[in-house]
Amino acid sequence: MCIRDSSDAAPPDPSSIPLVTDAENSRNPSLAWTGTDLGLAWDREVGTSTYDSVFARFGTDGTPRGAVTIASDSQETMDLEWSTDRFAWLFSLFEGNRSNFYVQFIDGAGATIAGPTQLGNTPHAPRTMAIDYGAALASAYFDNQGGQTLRLEVFDGSGSNQVGPVVLDSFGGSSGGPSIARGADRYAVSWKVSDTTKVSGGYVRLVDFAGAPLTEPTLFSPDFQTTSELIWTGSTFILAWTEQVDGTWTMNVAYVDGAGTVQDARALPGSSTRMAGLDAVWNGNELALAWADERDGNYEIYFASVGADLGLIESPTRVTTSERESDDPSIVATPSGYLIAYVEGERFDGGEAIYLVAAP
Fold it and tell me: Distance between CA atoms of 263 and 3, rounded to whole angstroms?
């Protein structure tokens, strides 16, 4: 499979490196760092509303390394994470009349270790899933059981179920997210609720490693929009999210304390007419954020960072300068700095390609 089109040697943004620029539309990049290489999972259009989820490795200069792995007839790439000696590649497949989630474990050389193995095997079709891959593979996902049901499941390094599914929340209406992070002795999960039977907005809940809830669902923002990101710093959880009030969007950060309460919430400088596609990474000293922002007239990738005390290190900064839409960022921390994979739209006849750019 060719993932690089020679006619696309010059990226639309002069600071970006082409990763996936073949003739097919590509979207939903998820980037992971092994310590030496980049892993990238993404969706590649192979027909009308038909996609394959694809995995490949790259150098930090964008050079492809090794073979390409394809999960045929997938619906969506959900996540890619690296832990110790393997990638966990999460994607959905449409089977029968429902979507099912699968994980495939791949080593640093690109060889499959285990899977694909089905996750979230409930009687009702799962919708969206997030994973945290460390000592175990923890997943939080919604399924449609007479509304929206948020569940937690934990799996080992081969995809075998260890804990759950545990119900964390249930409501009518619609949902968003979720995000999950593993701490020292518990998981934190955040998600969006849009419903008439309870206060709509962003919620967070803490759960121990055995799946027992430690707190009730706690509302952290009635103005929460799109997705949130939870990060464990080694001593505390930090939550990042977007808010929209009267048409003005802001990027926000806060701590989540041991009672599941959001503390010391603050907005980063600046505002926008719309934000989307938030991703975050902790490099051991600071939290780095990447998102798509419309404040300059069309979506461009923005970057910011805060310290462990939530103090601003890097103010929101535009990192792409294309006249076309830049969206769906995925960020990793490397010894030489942050790298962001993103989708560039309107390429040629309106297609989408994936590029790599360094953050400030």
Answer: 45
Residue 347 pLDDT > 50: no
The widest CA-to-CA distance across the chain, in whole angstroms, is 55
29 prior amide bond cis, ω within 30: no
Q: Report the alpha-carbon distance of residue 151 to residue 170 in Å, rounded.
A: 9
Q: Compute the distance between CA of residue 45 and CA of residue 208 in angstroms, rounded to an integer.
A: 39
Q: Are strands 161-171 and 237-245 parallel, antiparallel or unpaired?
A: unpaired
Task: Give pLDDT, residue 225.
Answer: 77
pLDDT at 291 over 50: yes
Name 285's Cβ contacts closer than 8 Å, sequence gap at least 6: 307, 308
Distance CA 218, CA 220 (A): 6
Q: Which pTM was predicted?
A: 0.93
Token match 């939290």: residue? 287
pLDDT digits (tens, 9 = 90+) for 218-265: 999 998 777 899 999 999 999 999 999 998 999 999 999 999 999 999
